[in-house]
């Protein structure tokens, strides 16, 4: 997965990309993250990236030409580009979209806006996909870009050591995740469910499935679609519902 981020704040990108899983993903060559300072594509010596909006009003608007130039430079490298513009007006980001990005063979390019917005001609000429990470407004597109990169990178084969942990993940198979425990067995008087210490793999699988169903039933009933459930799931859900009534 090849990611290029056009930004006025490359340190924001580099700081996140240099840590943990994203760092290892790049070291292994499975993911490449490059940041490009839009200011480097400004011709005038003052290197001013924004200007007042035509028609007046408050705030500043990012200039179009430096962004066009940055895109031209990427295009000159020869690879096909898929352009993304993080925006609260975009389509909602999702696990499905993360999967799609993780499988993309084109170079992925995020154009990060700031201030009041960017010159509309960037959007009308380049027609990037507008993607939102939620119904709230952030100060810029950098954090949304890194959210998308992080979510997609961990789906690239080999990035997460144990592929099972990605498959069992929340939203990968519609259900939310089950609870996890690790050593020590007792923490401040709180124990670990007996079944997880039993060594009975069939019972552990069933317990995890049930707890996934319970989590989804309580936290995100909207993603619990009947057609995705097995007979066993329906039985477990009946048990969960009876357990609720008993409480
Ligand atoms: N830029 C500002 N807010 C955003 C959001 N919610 N999603 C994506 N990009 C944004």
UniProtKB/TrEMBL annotation:
S-adenosyl-L-methionine binds at residues 113, 133-138. The keyword S-adenosyl-L-methionine applies. It catalyses: guanosine(37) in tRNA + S-adenosyl-L-methionine = N(1)-methylguanosine(37) in tRNA + S-adenosyl-L-homocysteine + H(+). InterPro entries: Alpha/beta_knot_MTases, tRNA_m1G_MeTrfase_C_sf, tRNA_m1G_MeTrfase_TrmD, tRNA_m1G_MTases_N, tRNA_MeTrfase_TRMD/TRM10. One of its GO terms (molecular function) is tRNA (guanine(37)-N1)-methyltransferase activity. Residues 1-225 form the tRNA methyltransferase TRMD/TRM10-type domain. It is an enzyme of class 2 (transferase). Its main location: cytoplasm. GO terms for biological process: methylation. Keywords: Cytoplasm, Methyltransferase, S-adenosyl-L-methionine, Transferase, tRNA processing. It is found in: Cytoplasm. Specifically methylates guanosine-37 in various tRNAs. Belongs to the RNA methyltransferase TrmD family. Homodimer. This is tRNA (guanine-N(1)-)-methyltransferase. The gene is trmD.
């Amino acid at each position: 997965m090849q990611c290029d981020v056009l930004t006025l704040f490359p340190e924001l990108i580099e700081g996140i990309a240099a840590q943990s899983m994203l760092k290892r993903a790049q070291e292994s060559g499975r993911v490449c993250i490059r940041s490009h300072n839009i200011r480097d594509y400004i011709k005038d010596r003052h290197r001013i990236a924004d200007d007042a909006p035509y028609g007046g009003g408050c705030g500043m608007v990012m200039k179009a030409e430096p962004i066009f130039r940055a895109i031209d430079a990427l295009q000159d490298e020869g690879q096909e580009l898929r352009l993304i513009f993080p925006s609260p007006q975009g389509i909602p980001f999702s696990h499905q979209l993360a999967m799609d990005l993780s499988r993309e063979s084109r170079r992925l390019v995020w154009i990060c806006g700031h201030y009041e917005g960017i010159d509309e001609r960037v959007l009308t000429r380049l027609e990037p996909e507008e993607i939102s990470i939620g119904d709230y407004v952030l100060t810029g597109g950098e954090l949304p870009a890194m959210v998308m990169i992080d979510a997609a990178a961990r789906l690239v084969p080999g990035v997460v050591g144990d592929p099972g942990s990605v498959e069992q993940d929340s939203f990968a198979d519609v259900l939310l995740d089950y609870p996890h425990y690790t050593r020590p067995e007792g923490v401040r008087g709180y124990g670990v469910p007996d079944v997880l210490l039993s060594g009975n793999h069939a019972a552990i699988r069933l317990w995890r499935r049930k707890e996934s169903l319970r989590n989804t039933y309580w936290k995100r009933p909207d993603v619990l679609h009947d057609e995705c459930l097995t007979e066993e799931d329906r039985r477990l859900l009946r048990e969960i519902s009876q357990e609720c009534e008993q409480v």
